[in-house]
Target: Lipase (Class 3)
Amino acid sequence: MLIAGPDTRVVELRVHGVQGTTPQTLVDAVAAVDVAGDGLGRIVRPADRLRRPAPGPVLQTEGRPIPRVVEGYLWGGMTSGGVAKATWALLFPFSIANVAHWMLPPVPERNLPAHLLGIGLRSLLRVFALLLTALLVAQISVVSLDLLAAQCLRPGKPCLTSIPADVRALPWFRTFLGLLPIVAVIAVMRRVSHVDWRIERKEIADAEDKDQQPSSGLPGAHVATDPDTPALRSLHVVAALAVTSLIALGGPLKQLTATGGMGVAITVAWVVALVFIGVSVLGVLLLDDPTGGAPHRGGRWLRAALGKKPRRALLALAVLLMLTTLGLLEQLPLRVPGADVTVQVVALLMAFVLVLFGLMLLPAALLARRTWAALPRELRPWAGGWFSAPVLAIAGLLGGGFGAGVALPVRKALGSDLHLPVGYDYITLLWGVAGALGLLSTFAVASFTGAVRWRAFRKGKVWAREASLLHSGRMRDLRAATRAWWWARWERNHGHHMILIIASVLVVGAVVATVLRIRNVPPATWIAPFSAFGVGVLGLLAVSLLRAVYLAARQPESGRRLGIIADIAQFWPREAHPIVPPCYALKVVPELVARVQDHLRDPGTRVVLCGHSQGSLLVAVAAARLLEELPSHDRERIGLVTAGSQLQWAYPRAFPAVVPHASLARLSGGLDGRWRALCRGTDPLGGAVMTWRRQVFDGMLLGVGYRPDGSEGALAPALRGPTGALVLGGDHWLPDPQRGPFPGRRWRSGVSAHSDYTSDPEWDRAVAIAAGLLEVDAPESPPLPFARRPETRSRDALGGS
Model:
């Protein structure tokens, strides 16, 4: 531990979690001002009455008070607030498919079968993502080209009577009106995929050479820009334009018929559309080779073929194909059969790819099992490393549900005599069966959970022995804490099971609908209630999304709440699907690293990165980058504090290849005991980070965890801090409700759960330890005085003494 000198100061750099926050809340001040940043990534400090940056409260250590500067990094503007960012929620299926890529199991080194399976799985994911784009275009075509242009605007149809019959009979009017919304949506998707945060060129150059450098083994080592993203984006846009032309020309199975030269032109355009789709699928498959960029590999030819000029030429040809399609369709037929056929063909191809993906994922997970076989069960990946498959299934089925959910209200608004494609009857049946199974599953889970909880408390079973240590002598707090501990533990242990249940009920509904459609069995009379229920579910799904976007326009706070979807999904770079919002981690992490390096230029400064919830992942990745780049004498001046973190119970288990357990151990060893984790048993979203297999024995809290040297093993019994917290290894278990109030400190009453960790006085102690100013096992300082006398009597079955 470095000895503190007379010029020593601590910079506490805080990073918030999902849903954003205000600058004042982040730095615990009544006013705050920006001191750096570009408006999207804002670095703020507390301000005085003249709106000048003010220092934070001094940090009390054993020897003397140390000056402290409190800074906060605000990244909520990248994901939350505003209509444009709220509409990103409509791309939720695309984002889920992109997240599924990062959930793949790790590929063991020097294992050729696992390496080939990894390439195949990533390729299938990109093909599935391309099919998702095609499905969206096909479903928009059902609404725009079939329902609106072909049926509603047909001459003589009593629909939208404000448009005169003479206008409806104009050549190319209905075709243009039907194709315009589709092209507009494709243009918006292309624009969204081009949006990116300003990143230093050095960061991009490092990302391009990432595959040529050995992995550091630290968290987030693979989170970098993908040089293939521009090519992938162009292939998606070309495929979307080609699918639109294919639908207008008759569909993938049969083109429209005409005589003479018109028939030849339609056939040529139809074949060209199929060729463009085939080129897109082939390019997506081949682009996934992670070694394709090496100069001695064949992949360099593919990258050259999909360079900037070839991509522009391909896009120009796709646009020309769309204009040719418009010119060939002077008048639309009474129905557009290609829309229904395309939706069904794309859905069947997605089902085939998903089944193949799931089958290939099984051996890949088994081959990767040796990387986590020695871990205890509570640290192993969810579903044995197979969690990516159900997540991908949810993405596909939500994509189909969104389109059907929009088509049904549109038909209702235009007129009941309009007809949706036959396949939509089976989509409503899918969601009706899934919705019924979902209600039954919810009732079963709720009943079982309630029965287990009632039986446990009826028999006086102790669910939270740690709470009895934290709240010894405070019966009222112990009762409130025990209930909160039970529910928080249940949510952490069974949250992923709920996702598996959702995927299962959706897949069961899809199987029933697919079998009936393939056999061409019309829905029986007794199935009608399920279809009606499916219509209600799909309508509710579509209306909920549209209402959320509308409220975001009228009430910015609603847009910020909706941003929680983007906050979680947008951490991951565009890898499987390019038409997703940009990855904010590629901006936040380099700017955090740069800010820390600026502070470290002062030899007396020590920097502690502090992250809450999702912010804990950001600061962990930033700390890992600092350990890679800083010299050894500067590494000793950085520390890490995480609060309400998911770095043990969620991220290593959902993303075992990106944030594996071994990477966290390596990060802990690199920080040499300067990583402190604040946790509450009442927090359903955060949990322990540094310890596991905890148990209470003879009034002591024991467990296994990371040691300061980076090894893992049994730890010494937990030590009690001056304000009642239990420190086991690197974890600081906070009493919730707090044991105060304490004079001179901000107080928060009741159960805090996932919020306001900085209000606990243990926060300052954790920052001092992370800064290397205080030893964990140092003699306890005098406890802070209580403003009220604690209760002294506690005798009950929950373990109070």
Remarks:
- Residues 200-212, 290-296, 788-801 have pLDDT under 50 and may be disordered.
- The chain is about 50% helix and 10% strand.
